[in-house]
Amino acid sequence: MRFLEVSEQDGRYAARAGEQPTPSAGPGEVLIRVAASGVNRADLSQIAGRYPPPPGESPTLGLEVSGTIVPTGEPVCALLAGGGHAEYVAAPAGQVFPAPARMDLASAAGIPEAFLTAFVTLVLEANLRAGGTALVHAGASGVGLAAIQLAKFLGARVAATTRSREKLPALERAGADLAVHSAGEDIVAAIESRWGAGAVDVILDPIGAATLAGNLALLATGGTVVCIATMSGARAELDVSALMKRRGRIVGSTLRSRSRPEKAAIVARFRDEILPGFASGQLSVPVDSVVPVERAAEAFQRMRENKNTGKILIGWG
Question: Is the pTM of the predicted complex or chain greater than 0.90?
Answer without folding.
Answer: yes
